[in-house]
User: Which sequence fits this backbone?
């Protein structure tokens, strides 16, 4: 069944630039075909478009079709329409065209694993007489030697080719990495065995070499899969980009490329579609899936006037309309993607250290094996025995815990955290975080939510308080001032016109033909000659509403404590961290908040430079400080802290200097990050300790000739697998079940 | 034991053939989707 959709927009080059990769031989596009269920459907899809495309590849398992076509000769819309009419439900996948290169590489990797498996098994079988000291007929023995050689050629040389070429690359750039010892060991073992095969006597290492290749190939495959998993979220983010948008224009709705949208355009998003830009929702109130952006799986309700973000999915049953204001690279989605890419590229200090250590270690191993060879020869051993020692040393040493463990653990932790809405912008911060002993918290926007809350309403005698609230709400409608959030949705059917903001004192407008002023007490009251309402002990901000003649009502506006803040503070205290609030707000407000959260240390009326001074003071005392802020007002503090976590809102994402970004506007991710940091440090420590013990035990054994090469190969491979396995076992984070937090105290503080 | 002179080369031939068949299958994309199948819901229509 056809969706009857209009596909023609996809013919335009500017739209196609968003998803196709155009090369010399045509344009490559990857489609998802949700309507494919069997090989029959796949064949049908192929035959439908065979005449139009140059190359078609259908993957039934992944339900994808990649095709190459000549854009100048064939219209993509015709292809899409044909598939759509056949009920195959085509969908263009953005930016995901799996380059033919990566596919070829994957197949090659699988091929190498398979070949090394087959070869290792067969060679071991042919070597078994040797294992048990059975001496068959010499001619048969020689025949078995040749057979092992023939089978080892694909098993070592072809399957192990990446190891050799890696070693060559490392040596050419004058570096030492794991490939060098491994490649050298393989070359020596294989070369010695070939020589002995031709000579017709001596022990063979074909079994050792093939098994070694097999273990390493499997180990690397597992490692690359962890990395791929970490990259998965990135691909998800990139794939969630909308390619076209429905723009509302004078005549109706037109389909345009994402790049053609301009700020201020009205965009229509059909149910189930992805929002193409950030903007302000116009209508209606709708549920959105923002899980990709925030990690929060539950749908969020957005009503007109609220911000909606690109990458969110319209979960409603009707189309929504919003006014786009941030496009392309300016969207939150694009910035998150950029941050994650950056985080994946960044090489944390510890890893650099590990790499350097590994290089020294490998150099030492090379020296050891040459020394072992020389000493054995000097002591009168045969060349055969001396070679055995050298090979055993090379094979047994395992630097992989150093070079492998750190990135594997960090990748696992980072991707785990990202899925729960904590973006690690700087992977190294995870390790520093484990050593943190002091937490500095900002108040507004961090411990309290940025939305304001309307508290008490005091009306003059003879004035209806509720009506005043409605008037105030009507005045504040459309205002961007934080105070406006306190009045959101309270205007009823009142509409204000001729609204003007009076800088420094408030806002004025006409409601029902009368002019009203709404503003902070002092200036408004002064000007009107009204008595000033004294500040209450609660420290709430008071604003007053007045008309031409008199004051009508006063509203107390307060901020709300984030519901998760109380649990967070308790959690931090359980971890034995010192907690301090540094706020720019007045003493009353901060004191009340600190009292509610049971925090003893707090400082009010702090300027950014005073906050910074306090941080420096703590650091001078040798404390490691985690600073948590909203990312804008606290920039200097965040930049100077040992680890900074920010709760960015909207566009401020990349402005701050934060190491951790708590998405989804909630503090709940912070304990998760602390857990992750602890786990990461522990895993890395375990791996390092294991590597140390293993090498200390095994190298002396190998040097003294007590370790035969095949045992060395098994030991080294098992050690690698242990390290990779420990890293993969890695990082399961427990998310606190959504227990309701019982708060006996009023949630309002100023 | 004389049969070994035939069987060992034959065995080597079988191994090489197995390698060839395996590589051919890998190139044809038989092992492309090893991971996602396990996470897919049973699909009645296929």
Assistant:
């Amino acid at each position: 069944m056809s969706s009857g959709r209009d596909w023609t927009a996809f013919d335009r080059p500017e739209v196609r630039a968003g998803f196709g990769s155009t090369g010399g031989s045509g344009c490559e596009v990857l489609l998802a075909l949700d309507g494919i269920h069997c090989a029959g459907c796949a064949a049908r899809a192929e035959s439908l478009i065979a005449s139009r495309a140059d190359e078609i590849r259908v993957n039934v398992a992944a339900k994808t079709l990649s095709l190459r076509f000549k854009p100048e000769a064939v219209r993509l819309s015709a292809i899409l329409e044909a598939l759509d009419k056949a009920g195959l439900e085509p969908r263009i996948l953005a930016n995901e065209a799996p380059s033919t290169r990566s596919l070829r590489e994957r197949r090659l990797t699988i091929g190498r694993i398979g070949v090394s498996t087959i070869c290792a098994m067969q060679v071991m079988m042919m070597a078994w007489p040797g294992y048990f000291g059975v001496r068959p007929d010499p001619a048969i023995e020689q025949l078995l030697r040749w057979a092992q050689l023939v089978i080892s050629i694909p098993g070592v040389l072809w399957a192990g080719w990446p190891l050799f070429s890696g070693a060559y690359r490392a040596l050419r750039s004058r570096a030492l990495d794991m490939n060098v010892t491994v490649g050298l060991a393989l070359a020596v073992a294989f070369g010695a065995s070939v020589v002995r095969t031709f000579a017709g006597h001596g022990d063979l290492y074909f079994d050792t070499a093939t098994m070694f290749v097999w273990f390493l190939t499997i180990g690397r495959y597992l490692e690359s899969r962890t990395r791929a998993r970490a990259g998965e979220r990135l691909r998800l983010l990139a794939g969630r980009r909308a390619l076209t948008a429905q723009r509302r224009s004078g005549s109706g709705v037109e389909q345009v490329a994402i790049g053609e949208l301009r700020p201020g355009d009205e965009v229509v998003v059909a149910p189930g579609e992805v929002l193409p830009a950030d903007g302000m929702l116009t209508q209606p109130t709708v549920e959105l899936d923002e899980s990709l952006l925030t990690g929060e799986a539950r749908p969020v309700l957005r009503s007109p006037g609220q911000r909606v973000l690109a990458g969110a999915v319209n979960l409603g049953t009707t189309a929504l309309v919003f006014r786009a204001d941030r496009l392309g690279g300016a969207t939150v989605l694009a910035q998150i993607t950029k941050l994650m890419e950056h985080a994946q590229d960044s090489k944390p200090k510890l890893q650099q250290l590990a790499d350097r250590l590994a290089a020294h270690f490998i150099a030492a191993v090379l020296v050891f094996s040459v020394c072992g060879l020389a000493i054995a020869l000097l002591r009168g051993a045969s060349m055969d025995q001396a070679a055995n020692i050298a090979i055993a040393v090379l094979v047994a040493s395992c630097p992989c815990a150093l070079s492998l463990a750190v990135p594997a653990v960090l990748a696992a932790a980072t991707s785990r955290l990202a899925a729960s809405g904590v973006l690690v912008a700087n992977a190294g911060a995870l390790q520093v975080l484990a050593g943190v002993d002091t937490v500095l918290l900002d108040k507004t926007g961090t411990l309290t939510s940025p939305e304001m809350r309307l508290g008490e309403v005091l009306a003059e005698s003879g004035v209806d308080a509720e009506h005043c609230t409605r008037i105030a709400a009507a005045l504040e409608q459309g205002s961007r001032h934080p105070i406006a959030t306190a009045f959101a949705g309270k205007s009823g059917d009142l509409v204000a016109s001729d609204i003007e903001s009076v800088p420094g004192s408030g806002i004025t407008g006409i409601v029902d033909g009368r002019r009203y002023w709404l503003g902070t007490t002092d200036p408004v009251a002064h000007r009107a000659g009204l008595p000033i309402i004294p500040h209450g002990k609660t420290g709430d901000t008071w604003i007053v509403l007045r008309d031409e003649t008199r004051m009508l009502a006063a509203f107390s506006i307060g901020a709300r404590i984030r519901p998760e803040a109380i649990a967070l503070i308790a959690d931090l205290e359980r971890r034995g961290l010192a907690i301090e609030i540094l706020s720019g707000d007045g003493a009353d407000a901060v004191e009340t908040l600190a009292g509610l959260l049971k925090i003893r240390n707090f400082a009010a009326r702090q300027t950014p430079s005073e906050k910074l001074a306090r941080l420096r003071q703590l650091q001078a005392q040798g404390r490691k400080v985690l600073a948590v802020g909203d990312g804008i007002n606290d920039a200097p503090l965040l930049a100077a802290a040992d680890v900074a976590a920010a709760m960015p809102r909207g566009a401020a994402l990349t402005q701050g200097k934060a190491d951790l970004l708590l998405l989804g506007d909630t503090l709940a991710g912070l304990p998760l990050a602390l857990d992750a940091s602890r786990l990461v440090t522990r895993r890395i420590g375990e791996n390092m300790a294991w590597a140390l013990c293993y090498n200390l035990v095994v190298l002396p054994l190998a040097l003294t000739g007590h370790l035969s090469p095949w045992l060395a190969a098994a030991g080294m491979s098992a050690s690698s697998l242990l390290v990779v396995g420990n890293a993969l076992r890695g990082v399961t984070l427990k998310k606190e079940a959504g227990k309701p937090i019982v708060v006996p105290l009023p949630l309002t503080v100023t | 034991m004389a049969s070994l002179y035939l069987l060992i080369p034959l065995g080597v031939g079988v191994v090489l053939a197995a390698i060839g068949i395996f590589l051919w299958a890998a190139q044809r994309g038989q092992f492309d989707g090893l991971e996602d199948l396990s996470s897919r819901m049973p699909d009645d229509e296929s």
